[in-house]
Amino acid sequence: MRVGIVVFDGTDDLDVVGPFSVFGMASRAGLGVEVELIAPGERPDVTTRGGLSLRPGRWAPQDLDVLIVPGGGYASGEDIGVRAEIADGRLPAALAAAVRPDLVLASVCTGALLLAAAGLVTGRPCTTHHRAVEDLVAAGGRHVDARVVDDGDLVTAGGVSSGLDLALWLVERFRGPDAAGLVQRVMEYERREPLWRADVTSEGVSAR
């Protein structure tokens, strides 16, 4: 399981560090998980909203199983973060170009608005931070009131701390419930529900 977490100036610290910690723990536990920070274009380093300096690696989404997009600064209207990346256009274009049948695109918090700017949530069940729900719906998303929403190749999570739940769910989905349970116990974190999942069954779409 190869995971890339996108970083950009003004991204929320926990949106990045939460999932990175989960996947890093899974890697150290020998669960066959690799995680790295990535960014398109020439970005030798980025600074989070809280002031962390991060050095992203090479942009190679073709090598990933999961690509996670964090949020940051959207609800407060800051001049760096999600809104700035949408206005710039290069990150949404890179996300749109990354799409392929065996890649799962995921978002934490207002990262869903970057996926929306890339045209990737239209008509799809999804979620985001509660202060950005109206904008997500206006962009074509079909909002589901859940902590994590799994619609197959699109998995979205709500507010900031939900990135932990997103990452644990993806570990479970790719490596099984025992693997996710191990990481959860080591981190001493209790996963929060609800998880909404679109199951392709004779009964149609269901929620768990």
Q: How many domains make up the 3D coordinates?
A: 1
What CATH architecture do you see? Answer: 3-Layer(aba) Sandwich
Number of helices: 7
Helix content: 25-40%
End-to-end Cα distance, whole Å, is 24 Å
Helix and strand run? EHEEEEHHEHEHEEEHHE
Spell out the CATH superfamily: Class I glutamine amidotransferase (GATase) domain
Strand content: 15-25%
Global shape: globular
Strand order of the largest sheet: 2-1-5-6-10-9-11
What do the pLDDT scores average to? Answer: 93
Computed over alpha carbons, the radius of gyration is 16 Å
Major sheet characteristics? 7 strands, mixed
CATH class: Alpha Beta
Fold-level CATH name: Rossmann fold
Number of strands: 11
Poorly predicted spans: 200-208
Overall description:
Residues 200-208 have low confidence and may be disordered. This protein is 34% helix and 18% strand. It has one domain (2-197): Rossmann fold. It has 208 residues and is an alpha/beta fold. β9 and β10 form a beta hairpin. It has seven helices and eleven strands.
